[in-house]
Write a structure and sequence with these properties.
By secondary structure, this protein is mainly alpha-helical. It has seven helices and two strands. The protein has a domain of 88 residues. The protein has a two-stranded antiparallel sheet with strand order 1-2. Strand 1 and strand 2 form a beta hairpin. It starts with 19 loop residues before the first helix and ends with a helix.
């Protein structure tokens, strides 16, 4: 938003000695307020990747993007792998079923590719990684010994027995 100024910036004695970007910054601060002022100052003070990071902060500050979008775009600009669970679905009547909705950036896919995961699509690569991750978590639960399927079945049977006793 423009400030209502009667005297032009160039008529102010304080502006006479200013040159280049310093002058442009002072002029923006003289004429503008709020969101428009902040945006103009960003483009004057920063450049390259730093400018893009500051623009992201600006968009987050003024709620133009969500926190998750901010995190993903920030990681992408910095070249960092990023993955996030967006939603989980759970059916109380069938507790062993459910799903996750994931989001990721291209650097995450590259890191999985470098780790040896392969697939035709990004989704296939992420599915392989998530399956292996879940398998590793489950294996840790059982101490990493014995037959996983056998131990999982025993755990499920004990859960069914617990539920049957609870219903009595």
């Amino acid at each position: 938003m423009l400030k209502n100024r009667i005297i032009p910036f160039s008529w102010l004695p304080a502006s006479w000695g200013l040159r280049g970007v310093t002058r442009e910054i002072a002029e923006v601060e003289y004429y503008y307020v709020g969101k428009e002022r902040d945006w103009k100052l960003l483009t004057l003070k920063y450049e390259g990747t730093e400018l893009e990071l500051k623009r992201l902060e600006f968009k987050k500050k003024y709620q133009e993007i969500t926190d998750i979008e901010y995190e993903k775009q920030r990681a992408t600009l910095k070249g960092d792998p990023w993955v996030k669970i967006l939603t989980t679905e759970y059916d109380p009547s069938e507790p062993l079923t459910g799903s996750f909705e994931l989001d990721w950036n291209e650097h995450f896919i590259k890191s999985l590719d470098d780790a040896g995961y392969v697939g035709v699509t990004d989704e296939e690569i992420v599915d392989q990684w998530l399956s292996e991750l879940c398998r590793n978590v489950a294996t840790e639960q059982y101490g990493g010994v014995g037959d996983f399927d056998e131990q999982a079945e025993e755990a499920m049977n004990s859960r069914k027995n617990f539920n049957a006793k609870k219903e009595q």
